[in-house]
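Q: C-alpha cells for this one, please.
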Amino acid sequence: MTEAEFKNELKRLNGGYLFFGTEDYLKYSYSKEVQRAVLDGQFDDFNHIVLYAEDFSLTTLEDAICSLPMMSEKKLVEVRGVNLNAIKKDEYPKLESVLSQLEGNDHTIFILRAESDSFSYGKLPDKPSELYRLLTKYLKPVLLTFPSQARLKSWILRHFQRGRVDFSDSLCDRLVEICGHDMWALSNEIHKLCAYAKMNGLDKIDLKEIDYVCCKTIEYDDFQLTNALLDKNRELVFETLYRQKCAHDSPNLMLASIGKLYTELFLVYSMTKKGLNASQIATDTGIHKFKVGKYQNAVAKENPKKLIKAIELCREADIKSKSLSNVGSYIGVERLLSCLCTLFCR
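A: Here is the predicted structure, written as C-alpha cells:
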C-alpha cells in the first residue's frame, strides 16, 4: 500500500497495519492521523495501548490485541521502537499466532511501526524477507519512503502555513540545502523559524532568517564513515556518526559496513603478502581495483594482528546488536568506533 492509498484507508480503518520504509517522520505523522481517526477523546488512556521496546513481548502484545475497548467501539494498539530484526525464528510461530487474532477482531486497530533501522524487509516485490512475508499475512503493509523534491517542497510550505508565516516557494531549495532532506530535521528547523518570526514581529521568512536561525546539516554519503576510518581521522569518524544518528541511519547497516571494511582490508593485506598485485586481487575478490590500491596503501605498514582484532570487535558488536533496541545499537556502534580509533588512530 502506498502513502496515497493509506490516506484513503484512514476513512475505513480496520485490522492491522505495518508502517515500514525509510521515512520515520511519516510513520510518526500517520500514527497521529490514525489516533485522531480511532480515538474519541473520552477514554483514550484505556483505549490507546502503546508498547515500546522495554515493554514489548509477544505475551504483552497478545494481551493488548485481545483486550476489549473501554466504553468505546474501538481501541488502538501501537508497537514502537522494537527491533524486529531481533525476533528469533523460533518465535515466528508464536508471533503468527498472536497476529492471527486480528482476524475477525472488529474492535482493535493495530499499528506496527517498523523503524527504518530495525526491520529488514528484503527486496520488494521479488524477494521479501521471511519476517515481511509473515507480518503481511495479517497486517496491511504501508510503505513510507523519502518524498520527491516536489512533495517535500509542498510539505515545507504547508508547515509554514500552519505556523502562519509566509514562506516563498523559491526558498525551499535553500532550506533543504542547509538543513538536509530528513523530515524530522526540517520540521524542527521550521518550528524554530516560525518561533523566531513571532518573537520578532515578522510575518515573512526570508533568506537572511534561514541563514541566521537554521543549523547547517552536512549530508554524508554511504562511504563517509568507512573513509574516515580508513584515513584514521578520529574527529571525522565521530562527527559522521553523529550526523548519521541524526538522520536515523540504520545502526545495523553501519555495523555491517564497518565489518566489511576491516574484512576486506585483511583480505587485501593477506593477498598482497602472497605477492598478488592490485589487478589480480581485484579479479579474484571482486573489489574494485581503485579500492584495492587504496586498501594496499592503508595496510602497507599495518600490524596484521590489529586487523584481526578489529574483525573480532566488529563481530562482537554485530552479535550484541541483534538483541538491542535501536538506542542500544547506536551505543554499540559508538563503542566499536571508540575501540577502533584506539587501535588505529594516532
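A few notes: The chain has 17 helices and nine strands. The chain has three domains: 3-143, 149-213, 224-344.
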